[in-house]
Write a structure and sequence with these properties.
The complex is a heterodimer of chains A (145) and B (74). Chain A is mainly β and 145 residues long. Chain A contains 2 helices and 11 strands. In chain A, strands 3, 4, 5, 6, 7, 8, 9, 10 and 11 form a 9-stranded antiparallel β-sheet that branches. Chain B is α+β, with helices and mostly antiparallel strands. Chain B is 27% helix and 27% strand. The longest helix of chain B has 15 residues. Chain B starts with 10 loop residues before the first strand and ends with a helix. The relative contact order of chain B is 0.10. Classes of the chains: A mainly beta (145), B alpha+beta (74). At the A-B interface, β6, α1, β7 and α2 of A face α1 and α2 of B.
């Protein structure tokens, strides 16, 4: 099967193998778009991009939450667990980039779970999971200063 | 907007597949049950709003906005 070609506003022409396409049956919350792919090498720093294959201007930075929040926990409702339909999933969280490292945050409330080529952005039922959790605490600020 | 009056125990149908139960009213809270097909996500509105705003903000990032590994290690 030929690769999917995306004209990305950020990265130029992208060639995505069909096997790397992630179907989001209900899109990302408030953004829609049902076909996405991860762009960027996860060994090349903590961030990748979840890039829409339907809208070349639509992409979100994502990261592995446990790289920053070792105690992070995800608890899904029974309905969401059934929707996922798999025992294991890759968990990513969206990242809001800021002008300073101290402004970077991750959305721990609505993680993205990917299993068997399908993705869902689900609500984490853990009571205090923040929508905006600082990624780099004072340690990082000190290191950059 | 459709505005209708329902009593506890009564229901509302949205199409053929979605049922909204008005379960009980306690003080100024209404307990509502929603039965919907798995393909229809159900959210509390304020959470849906917060996540949508966060998704939009995340999608505004330019590639250069992300710190490179060298910056992290510094």
């Amino acid at each position: 099967m030929p690769p999917v070609i995306v004209e990305s506003s950020r990265f130029g022409t992208l060639e995505i193998e069909e096997s790397a396409v992630i179907e989001f049956p209900t899109g990302l919350i408030g953004l829609g778009s049902t076909r996405w792919a991860l762009v960027g090498d996860s060994t090349d720093g903590p961030f990748q991009w979840l890039h829409s294959l339907e809208d070349g201007t639509l992409a979100l930075p994502v990261t592995n939450p446990w790289a920053f929040f070792p105690d992070y926990a995800v608890e899904l409702s029974d309905a969401d667990t059934a929707k996922l339909g798999a025992d294991e999933a890759t968990v990513l969280v969206t990242v809001r980039a800021g002008a300073e490292l101290s402004d970077f945050s991750a959305n721990l409330r609505a993680p993205i779970l990917i299993a068997e080529g399908r993705g869902h952005q689900l609500i984490n039922e853990v009571a205090d999971a923040p929508v905006r959790a600082a990624l780099f605490g004072e340690v990082a600020e000190t290191a950059v200063a | 907007m459709l505005i209708i009056t329902r009593r506890p125990g009564e229901k509302i149908m949205l199409g053929d597949d979605i049922v909204v139960h008005v379960m009980e009213i306690v003080g100024n809270s209404v307990r509502v049950g929603v039965e919907a097909p798995r393909s229809i996500p159900v959210y509390r509105e304020e959470i849906w709003n917060a996540v949508r705003d966060e998704n939009r903000a995340a999608a505004d990032a330019a590639p250069r906005a992300l710190p490179q590994p060298s910056e992290q290690d510094a």
